[in-house]
Amino acid sequence: MNQPDDVRQASVPAPVRVPFGQRLAAAMQEHGPLCMGIDPHAGLLAEWGLTDTAEGLETFSLRSLEAAAAEGVAAIKPQVALYERHGSSGIAALERLLGQARDAEVLTIADAKRGDIGSTMAGYAEAWLSDGSPLAADAVTLSPYLGYESLRPAIDLAVQNGRGVFVLALTSNPEGASVQHVGGADGSVARSIARAAAADNAEAGPDHLGPVGLVVGATVAEDAARLGLDLATVGGALLAPGFGAQGATAHGMKTGFGQAWPHVVATSSRAILQAGPTIESLREAIRRNRADLAG
Ligand SMILES: O=C(O)c1cc(=O)[nH]c(=O)n1[C@@H]1O[C@H](COP(=O)(O)O)[C@@H](O)[C@H]1O
Q1: Which is it for the CA torsion 244, 247, 248, 252, positive or negative?
Q2: Residue 113 backbone dihedrals phi, psi, to 5 degrees
Q3: Distance (Å, rounded) from C-alpha 241 to C-alpha 269?
Q4: How much is the pTM?
């Protein structure tokens, strides 16, 4: 007997996705720790000979993805703010980038820095972390400054869907210290975020990266120890923006992160993107950065 389509679909089990931490670790194993930030700033679009429009954004994004996919990176990290500048057509360009990255099997970290009261957080979680959402990414950046527990809906959905989150702990901007360093070595705000993340990662076990990564700026990693953060025991990946344009070097990061270095995803946006507009010149910049990090 023929079944209606919806009954047939309901009987098909949902695909089991390998957890984000394991997928990221595999990508890092294969390609090294470089994450290519995709930040379509107006100035970069102009340098590439593109217009500061949604069309320009899309060309910029897809060319960046093509270079990243061809060369191999741990992940790409599109900066959501720079798509939001263009309203719905900018978001449509971001959706196409995320969709094509999915097809190319390049991991995506949507840099949206979301954070809100729990009930609203559930909406952000659905947008960025649920199957079938046009904006679904492999992971999203979150701000814990409404309280780490307010992020729970996103953390739960990430776990359920084999996705991940990166929670801001120590950011690369100078103003971050006025909040994140409060409490000092014995009880800094950043330390409490790191401990909460470690608790959420415990279930993944010592051999796997858990679903909750931290954002620790590449330029401020050396602050971690004096603020009581043991980055090597967080149990999640450490997203480290600031490599390149903000002055962090591969050598400086290795020293700053110390034993936690194997968990670091080193993120660079402008320093790579400035090499555009050709795919070959972008690939060359990715190769150079990868070699630098491997050396
Ligand atoms: O969450 C982030 O990615 C982030 C956190 C942080 O502490 N510092 C920081 O620079 N970022 C982002 O990382 C990117 C850095 O870009 P570049 O300085 O051009 O490499 C930007 O998209 C920033 O918004």
Answers
A1: positive
A2: 45, 55
A3: 8
A4: 0.95
Tell me, in angstroms, the distance from the centre of ligand 1 to residue 206's CA.
Answer: 28
CA separation for the pair 11, 92 (Å, rounded) = 32
In the reported structure, the alpha carbon of residue 239 is separated from the centroid of ligand 1 by a whole-number distance in angstroms of: 10
Ligand 1 atom at minimum distance from 245 CA: 18
CB of 39 within 6 A of ligand 1: the answer is yes
Domain boundaries, the chain: 24-294
Round to whole Å and give the CA distance between 251 and 259: 14
Kindly provide the ipTM of the predicted complex, given to two decimals. Answer: 0.99
What residue type is 18 in one-letter code?
V
The answer to whether the CB of 41 is under 6 A from ligand 1 is no
Position 233: which residue type?
A: T
What residue has token string 């993805």? 65
Cβ–ligand 1 contact at 217 (below 6 Å): yes
Instruction: Report d(CA 294, CA 115) in Å as an integer.
Output: 34
Beta strands in the chain (DSSP E): 34-38, 75-78, 109-114, 139-142, 164-170, 212-216, 238-241, 264-268
Which residues belong to the active site? 113
The CATH number corresponding to 24-294 among 3.20.20.70, 3.40.630.30, 3.40.50.1370, 3.40.50.1820 equals 3.20.20.70
Residue nearest to atom 11 of ligand 1 (CA): 241
Task: Tell me how many degrees the CA angle 101-109-55 measures, rounded to the nearest 5.
Answer: 55
Cβ 151 vs Cβ 199: under 8 Å: no
Question: Contact 113/71 with Cβ under 8 angstroms?
Answer: no
User: 10-residue block means of pLDDT along the chain (295 residues)?
Assistant: 46 70 98 98 98 98 98 98 98 98 98 97 98 97 98 98 98 96 94 98 94 97 94 97 96 96 98 98 98 94
> Quick one: tokens of 238?
């450490």
Q: What pLDDT does 295 receive?
A: 85
